[in-house]
Write a structure and sequence with these properties.
heterodimer, A: mainly beta, 5-stranded mixed β-sheet, 4-stranded antiparallel β-sheet, 9 strands, 0% helix, B: mainly beta, 11 strands, globular
C-alpha cells in the first residue's frame, strides 16, 4: 500500500507555478521522497527526489519539511505539456526497491 | 541512447489464449521491473530482476504469469491462459545497479496495452 497521501486533482493556470503537496507522515530515516509523473498514454517519468534538503533540477523543485512528514513539488512555470498524473513515492535509496504508486494527483494546466 | 522499449504496443487476445510481452531495458541496466495498471486501479509492481535473477516477485498475481530474463538482457512476461481481469497496461522499467547509481531512478517504457476479450 502507498505510504503517501495526495489530493486527487488540481488545476493550475498556464505560466503559473504549480504546487503539488504530499503527506508522508510514516516515512523512515532511510527513505527518500521521489516524484514521478505519467503523461497520458506514456510510461511514468522520473522528476526529482530528495531526502531532507530542498532540491532543484531542470524540471522542478522539491521542498521537504524539516520533520520530513510532507513535501511539495513545484513546477515553476507550468505549461500545457505538464498536464499529467503526479505521484509522490517514498522509497529506499539503496537496493533499487520497487516503487509503490498511489493514486497520485491529476494536474490539469488551464490555458 | 535508446530508452526502454516494449513490444507489442497493443495486444488483443481471447480469454484462454497465451500472450507474451517483451521488454528491452536500457543497455547496461542490471535492474528490470514489471508493473501493470488494470482498469481503474493504481500502477502495481509485479516483479524485479537483478540481471537474470528474480530479486522480488511478490507482486505476481498468480501462476498464470511467468517472467523470464535469460542472459540478463531483455525480459519476457507470459500470461497463460489469459483471463478477462488481466486486461490493462503492462509497464517495464529499468535502472542501474544501486552500487553505481546515485539514486533509484527507474526508466519506464511506454507500456503494452493488453485487452483480453
Amino acid at each position: 500500500d502507498a505510504k503517501t497521501t495526495q489530493p486527487p486533482s488540481m488545476d493550475c493556470a498556464e505560466g503559473r507555478a504549480a504546487n503539488l503537496p504530499c503527506n508522508h507522515s510514516t516515512i523512515s530515516g532511510n527513505e527518500y521522497v521521489y516524484w514521478y509523473r505519467q503523461i497520458h498514454s506514456q510510461g511514468p517519468q522520473y522528476i526529482i527526489h530528495g531526502l531532507k534538503n530542498n532540491e532543484t533540477n531542470e524540471m522542478a523543485s522539491l521542498i521537504i519539511t524539516e520533520d520530513r512528514k510532507s513535501s511539495t513539488l513545484i513546477l515553476p512555470h507550468a505549461t500545457l505539456r505538464d498536464t499529467a498524473v503526479y505521484y509522490c513515492i517514498v522509497s529506499s535509496h539503496f537496493g533499487n526497491e520497487k516503487l509503490t504508486f498511489g493514486t497520485g494527483t491529476r494536474l490539469t494546466i488551464i490555458p | 541512447e535508446a530508452g526502454v522499449t516494449q513490444f507489442p504496443s497493443h495486444s488483443v487476445i481471447e480469454k484462454g489464449q497465451t500472450v507474451t510481452l517483451r521488454c528491452d531495458p536500457i543497455s547496461g541496466h542490471d535492474n528490470l521491473y514489471w508493473y501493470r495498471r488494470v482498469m481503474g486501479k493504481e500502477i502495481k509492481f509485479l516483479l524485479h530482476f537483478v540481471k537474470e535473477s528474480k530479486q522480488d516477485e511478490s507482486g505476481m498475481p498468480n501462476n498464470r504469469f511467468l517472467a523470464e530474463r535469460t542472459g540478463g538482457t531483455y525480459s519476457t512476461l507470459k500470461v497463460q491462459p489469459a483471463e478477462l481481469e488481466d486486461s490493462g497496461v503492462y509497464f517495464c522499467a529499468s535502472s542501474q545497479d544501486y552500487g553505481t547509481s546515485t539514486h533509484n531512478e527507474q526508466f519506464f517504457g511506454p507500456g503494452t496495452r493488453l485487452t483480453v476479450l
